[in-house]
Amino acid sequence: MKPLHIIAMLLMSLSIGAQTINQFDANGKRHGIWKKNFEGTKVLRYQGQFHHGKEVGIFKFYKNIKGKAVLTASKVFNENDNTAKVTFFSSKGKIISEGKMNGKKFIGKWEYYHDDSDKLMTVEHYDVNGNLHGKRFVFYDNGQIAESSNYQFGKLEGEAKWYSLKNVILKHFIYENGELHGVSKYYSPKGELIAEGRYKHGKKHGIWKYYENGVTEEKDFSHKKKAP
User: Which region is the signal sequence (predicted)?
Assistant: First the structure.
């Protein structure tokens, strides 16, 4: 094949490729490769591919930082539904968090990372409606657990615990329908019990005990005085 013919074919290929960007199908739905810039600029805002109006494959989203497109998120869309595997990035390219989304709702398991390392900071679970549901954990940057709790349909439910860097429990609460409800205990960094009592629908109730230097002080929250 002559060089001129090769050049002509390359030009034709480039022309066809350019024509496939930002196109609509016969029904007016986005189809093929799409790219959009931030308004009034040449800075890329997003790029991806549609199949008759539905996102497919990988989409990339950018921030405009000083006139430069900086990757902020990527979404890998499922061809059979509206879910996507999503990854969020810092301006330096480090992964901030990752999980699944259905539209704008977080679903399933999500993982978040510490700013200065690739170690896990938080693990959460979401239901199909985007509500926190199931176990939630927070970790120190050395991997030691800092908090553990449980959610049901977006509200705290059951035990919640807080820990020191030395794995000493600091607080132990019980939640019901998003409110403190049940026995609660507070500990010193050495693991010594310093206060305990019950909450009833988010308020202290009954006898609370406070411990300090071998002395126990009791306070009764059963009958609060009413304002005159």
Answer: 1-18
